[in-house]
Amino acid sequence: MNKKITLSLALLSFIFSVNAQTGTDVDTAIKYGRYDVAKKDLYKLIRTQPNQGRNFYRLGTIHLIENNQDSANYYFKQGLRAVKEPGINNIGIGKISLLNGKDKEAKSKFNAGTNNLPLNDYETFLVVADAYTKAPKPDFDAALDYVNYALLVDLKVPEPHIARGDIYFAEKRFVDARRVYFETSKMFPESLLPKMKLADVFRAGNEFGEAIKVYDSIVAKNPDYIDVYKQLGLTYADYARFEDDKSLLDKGVENYFKYHGLIGESLDSDNELATYLIKNKHYKALGDLVRTKWYTRGDNFYMYRYRAIADFQNGKFADAKESINKYFDVQDKKENILPIDYLYKGLSELETSRNEDGTFNEAVYKKSIEEMSKAVKENPQLGVALHQLGVDLFKDEHFEQAYFVFDLASKDEKSPYYVYDMYYKGNALYMASDSPMFNDQLQKAKSDLDNSLKKTPTFEAYLISARVNRNLNTPTSLAQMEKDYEGFISLLTEKGRANDAAFKEALVEAYTMIGNYNKTTNKEKATNAFKKVLQLDSSNEYARKQVQNAN
């Protein structure tokens, strides 16, 4: 088992101060997503070197990556007026045309952009090939044509050969891609790029262990090869999800931090690192990152947002409330605030508004839920995100927070997750009932589970509803408990899951409770239920005694 890696503030400070690059290479900054750094330099260059068309192309490319097509188009067209290398901007305009389904226009622009290239320029052909490969409607034949042009220019470098494999990879022809990468690796044994690509194929096929072996061999050969650390970070994260083993993620986070330490400081790269940590739910590292970066990146307002998320997920609700409110305050453009931000704002306010006994002030709760509901209505896609967030919180046994999220998600009865949102909502209330948030918590749980069962019966909802009714312990609820357990057994049998080992314990519980409920009123039904228990678990002494006593 991997030892857990604690990313202390001291370690993070070391990574970011010792390994950070000095100086700026615009193309390198673009490659590693340091767009804010690259743009700053490019704005200066287009003022001081207005005749250099490639600078306009680079700036337009960044805006295109950031999905600002209008700005990208503006800079590409400005670049066409330059004296030196104006034609490269046709490539950028062609990309925009391709993104908008204007294939003929794109082809014309790509032709114009590649007509008068320097004799040794194979890279531009590969850029066009990549554009066709990643287009909304990929044209792999056109991409391969441009790769072949690149091969005609220079056969003695690995990149054109690898690009051929990349096309196969995009087509999900993984065997062909692997063959090309392997052949390229043999042709260029000193190049690490084909080895990286081979590892990518392993990763795509969920062969994470094999991929990591290849990446590690690259690190052993060249510890300064920056790209490998990002791939290790991504691969370990995928591996952790695939194996449901959080300890693997620690290794991924370690490598991803190392990658970011090597590429250098940037607001955009800070945000990208934070996004990685949020996506992979490593909130401890996110909190460490924010506190470390705060001293050097205080101008990055997103840090307020990331600190709020980290503090909320780490149970520091007062700090989360303070941070998310600051984030809202510093935003000049309110349209930049996402619906999920309103969710965290509302959840943080809820958590800090508890009564002394741990229950919630009903008025505050209702108001907060209404405010957060606005965010859900503004963005229907948030319902999917809410469902996943709620499931993650539930799995991590944050039942109270999970309840809030599912309460919001269940406002949309048209949601494909509505039935399960209601189920989880009721289950979360049941799981948190030892320290209730509401005075009538079990009744609320019962109502939610009833709504879920009315919409679409599921064996999960039947089981939890039975437990809730058992805990309510009234004559009416106990009668309903029996019906729920019977519904659970019936639906499980109907689905062909009654013999699954995973449900053995729950079935023993159901038959035992049915037996106990009928012991004095319907002895035959009770005995049959206890016999079912013995069929499932022959060592169950309680059921055995009940059957013997009945005889």
Note down, in words, how this protein is organized:
Residues 1-23 have low confidence and may be disordered. The chain is mainly alpha-helical and 551 residues long. The protein has helices at residues 9-18, 26-31, 35-48, 53-65, 69-79, 88-99, 103-114, 123-133, 140-153, 158-170, 174-187, 193-204, 208-221, 226-243, 246-263, 267-279, 283-293, 302-313, 317-330, 339-351, 362-378, 382-395, 399-409, 418-431, 441-455, 459-472, 475-494, 504-518, 523-536, 541-550. It is built from 30 helices and no strands. Among the domains are: 380-456, no CATH class; 458-551, Serine Threonine Protein Phosphatase 5, Tetratricopeptide repeat, CATH 1.25.40.10. The radius of gyration is 30 Å and the shape is elongated.
Mean of the pLDDT scores? 88
Gyration radius (Cα, Å) is: 30 Å
State the end-to-end distance: 53 Å
User: Helix amount, in percent?
Assistant: over 70%
Strand runs, count = 0
Structural class by secondary-structure content: mainly alpha
Under CATH, the topology of the domain at 458-551 can be stated as Serine Threonine Protein Phosphatase 5, Tetratricopeptide repeat
Uncertain ranges: 1-23
What order do the helices and strands follow? HHHHHHHHHHHHHHHHHHHHHHHHHHHHHH
Which sheet architecture does the biggest sheet show? none
- CATH architecture descriptor name of the domain at 458-551: Alpha Horseshoe
- Content of β-strand: under 5%
- Helix count, DSSP H or I runs of 4 or more residues: 30
Q: CATH homologous superfamily name of the domain at 458-551?
A: Tetratricopeptide repeat domain
Overall 3D form: elongated
> What is the class of the domain at 458-551 in the CATH system?
Mainly Alpha
